[in-house]
Design goal:
The chain has 787 residues and is an alpha+beta fold. Helix content is 59%, strand content 8%. Strands 1-2-3-6-5 form a five-stranded antiparallel beta sheet, with no helix packed on it. The radius of gyration is 37 Å and the shape is elongated.
């Protein structure tokens, strides 16, 4: 009694804590009061125990330790007084959880309180069970909760339904206990009980195939309840902004989506209702928008009619015009999910999606960019690329890399002509050259090299762009390469596709020297420029002294790569000037894939087989070219025989200039099995294109050996931020049973830093009437995929 009389009341404690001016004063007050509370607990004062625990709970909510009050909660719960039970149950919900064994001690108290007829006590016990009940408690008390589901009191029924939801989430095998009462509870007129019942049925259907089959028989009843809500309303007190009970509507729509998925009969039953909800719901308020969005998700997830799906896409299109940014973001995200299955319907809203690119909100503009890139096809590539290039010029820096990469990929896939492809790539390089992928330079040089009719046009365009700006390093590298290869066409001045441009030799050399001397030039860029100068020595008709002087200067450069090039070129000038024209001749045309490449590969294979059968004699010219590799003027006597080499001059020239030659075909990368469940198997196969070492192509192959089809199959992938991932459209969304035709999907992954690859996959599909979602990481990829 002494301890309780000297301690503060709850109101006084709150006031004193609030009046503390420093944290130290607050701690002092709390420590002093906690000492009084401990003393009171030790004395076993039953009259003031609930007051002391109430103060301790307030201290706990402030973040201070209060674990010493756990056993007092159990004593108050066992007390017959309601005032004690109220504080005891509140303390149990705050201080106890599944990690502490003490929470199991209240199981008997909760069971006794649930058996009493006092509604308030039953409500307290149900709230505590739904908040802190462990799996063991749920198994022990499931029967008592099931009895309370049909109690006359709506207050108890509502709390019992919510407790049943918690039990199903903790212990899914308890589903069979709660199936019979749900059918009766659907006839409820009490809003809280009906909303809780719909939530309970949703949980049951998501976790039990038997429950899903059972409740599909009740689809007509659910349709009737929702139609009544839409037409006549449920009750005015639950209407929000003119929308009749939107919370209940949303919950019923979610349940209908689960019941109608992969079930034709149920889907057909709800089609008319969904069309009615989609056309009659008011969109001027946010509550109506929530109902409409849930309706759209339901339409897209069930077997709905084609016209209904178009209506759903049009609703999302109207969302794009909403003034609320959250609604526009939701619409863009949903359209991005639908663009693969309903591409033509989403295409109708392309102008609105493009307008969203100009949003000041970065999250909106990023989502609009992703959707815009997904909408590009062969029929709209010119218009969409023009819009995206306009966005690239003004977009935030963190979006420039994604936008530039997306434009280049779209141009590579859907380019109508080679000239348009070159112009588009050049504009991207001029606008955001520092943000493009690492393979952009190689792709553009390969494209220009394979378009003989555009050599003169390309070199003029690149020369003009280089004269205006030398800060964009990828652009400078491509321009230097092109000027070195086709500098003679630049000086001819005969190109019908561009304006007349008179260029003097001195101007070209001065521009390349400017690139070499610029502090913005990377070592790789200087290497391109130095090689271009060397090649111009055979394409220009003037004196080469200026070129020789520039090359000799870089013979003592600190950069080892650049120094090696300069020393080799100087040696070529001094000792092998008579072969310089042959060594520096133009690179032959390069065909990008196709049947010709396959024929060439076949011919090269046959040639290799013939060379193995008959040794090729070494010609004098080949031995002379081999001597060029010995830049230190080492002796080449008869005792030293060079290794066999391709007798064609082109092979030796490539080795001399340290240019990329055709490497031997790499060893195939082994396939990898990453997933297997109930007959569904997922395998990954890998290909690294020789011309693009940073690109990895992964083919995801899904096969099904079970007796039932795998439907609505979706494979999604994610990679770390240092990688760039593009998912191609899958070959289908159904994996046939009994080892039928597999489903494939291509993943393009760019790894510019050649970092170890980690892949995260998410699979969603329906199998044997059950919805399955699997998320897993693939960390055991072969080292050949990234090294």
């Amino acid at each position: 009694m002494v301890a309780s009389s000297s301690s503060l009341k709850l109101q006084d404690l709150i006031q004193e804590i609030r009046e503390a001016k420093t944290q130290a004063q607050e701690r002092e007050v709390i420590q002093k009061e906690c000492a009084h509370i401990r003393a009171s607990f030790r004395d076993g004062d039953p009259l003031h125990r609930h007051r002391q625990l109430a103060k301790l709970l307030y201290v706990h909510m402030l973040g201070y330790p209060a674990h010493f009050g756990q056993m007092e909660c159990l004593k108050l719960i066992a007390s017959p007084r309601f005032t004690d039970k109220r504080v005891g149950y509140l303390g149990a919900m705050l201080l106890l959880d599944e990690r502490q064994d003490a929470h199991l001690l209240i199981t008997n108290s909760i069971k006794n309180d649930l058996s009493q007829g006092i509604q308030a006590v039953q409500g307290l016990a149900l709230c505590t069970l739904s908040a802190t009940g462990s799996a063991e408690m749920c198994r022990d008390l499931a029967t008592e909760v099931e009895k309370l589901l049909l109690q006359p009191s709506a207050y108890v029924r509502k709390k019992a339904v919510l407790t049943a939801v918690h039990m199903i989430r903790k212990v899914p095998e308890l589903s069979n206990i709660f199936l019979p009462p749900c059918a009766q509870l659907l006839h409820e007129h009490h809003h809280g009980v009906l909303l809780g019942t719909i939530t309970l049925i949703t949980e049951l259907c998501e976790r039990s195939p038997a429950a899903l089959k059972h409740f599909r028989k009740m689809v007509p009843q659910l349709v009737h309840i929702l139609r009544t809500l839409v037409t006549t309303g449920y009750s005015t007190e639950h209407s929000i902004s003119g929308v009749s009970d939107p919370f209940l509507q949303v919950q019923i729509l979610r349940l209908l989506r689960i019941l109608g998925r992969n079930h034709e009969e149920s889907s057909e039953t709800m089609n008319d209702l969904l069309a009615q909800v989609a056309t009659n719901t008011d969109t001027s308020r946010n509550a109506g928008n929530a109902v409409l969005f849930e309706t759209v998700l339901t339409i897209m997830d069930i077997h709905s009619a084609a016209g209904l799906r178009v209506l759903a896409v049009n609703i999302l299109g109207r969302f794009l015009l909403n003034s609320d940014r959250n609604i526009r973001y939701v619409a863009l995200t949903s359209l991005l999910r639908l663009v693969q299955s309903d591409h033509s319907a989403v295409q109708r809203h392309r102008p609105t999606v493009v307008e969203c690119l100009r949003e000041p909100d970065d999250s909106l503009s990023r989502r609009a960019l992703e959707l815009s890139l997904a909408l590009v096809n062969s029929s709209n590539v010119r218009a969409m690329t023009q819009e995206l290039q306009g966005f690239l010029e003004s977009c935030p820096p963190d979006l420039q890399a994604d936008c530039a990469s997306g434009i280049l990929l779209a141009a590579e896939r859907f380019a109508p002509t080679k000239r348009w492809h070159i112009d588009t790539t050049l504009r991207v390089l001029m606008t955001a050259g520092t943000h493009v992928r690492d393979d952009a330079v190689a792709n553009l040089t390969q494209l220009i090299g394979g378009a003989q009719e555009l050599h003169a046009y390309s070199v003029r365009r690149l020369y003009s762009a280089l004269a205006e700006d030398i800060s964009q390093q990828p652009l400078v590298q491509v321009a230097a390469w092109c000027i070195g290869e086709y500098g003679d066409l630049l000086l001819e001045g005969s190109c019908e596709e561009t304006e007349p441009l008179q260029v003097e030799e001195e101007e070209v050399l001065a521009l390349l020297e400017r690139v070499l001397q610029s502090h913005m030039s990377l070592p790789a860029t200087r290497g391109y420029a130095l090689t271009a100068l060397m090649k111009l020595s055979t394409r220009l008709h003037g004196d080469n002294n200026r070129i020789r002087q520039v090359v000799s200067v870089y013979g003592s450069c600190l950069d080892v790569e650049l120094q090696q090039r300069a020393v080799e070129y100087n040696t070529l000038f001094r000792k092998y000037d008579h072969m310089r024209a042959a060594i520096l001749e133009k690179i032959p045309l390069v065909e990008r894939g196709g049947s010709q490449a396959d024929e060439e590969a076949k011919e090269s294979k046959e040639t290799a087989q013939l060379s193995e059968a008959a040794p090729v004699p070494t010609e004098p010219q080949a031995s002379e070219l081999l001597d060029l590799l010995d830049l230190l003027d080492g002796p080449s006597g008869d005792a030293q025989h060079p290794p066999p080499l391709d007798p064609t001059p082109g092979g030796a020239l490539i080795h001399l200039l340290n240019l990329p030659c055709a490497p031997p075909p790499p060893a195939p990368i082994p396939n990898l099995k990453v997933f297997e469940r109930e007959g569904l198997q997922l395998n990954l196969s890998f290909v690294r294109p020789p011309g693009t070492p940073t690109l990895l192509l992964i083919t995801v192959t899904a096969t099904n050996t079970s007796g039932g089809d795998v439907t609505h199959f979706i494979c999604q992938a994610a990679v770390p931020k240092s990688f760039q991932l593009q998912l191609q459209a899958p070959s289908g969304d159904t994996v046939p049973a009994q080892g039928g035709l597999p489903t494939t999907q291509l993943l393009r992954i760019l790894n510019p830093k050649k970092a170890p690859l980690r892949l995260k996959l998410r699979l969603t599909y329906n199998h044997f009437g059950q919805s399955v979602q699997e998320i897993f990481e693939v960390n055991n990829l072969p080292v050949e995929t990234w090294q």
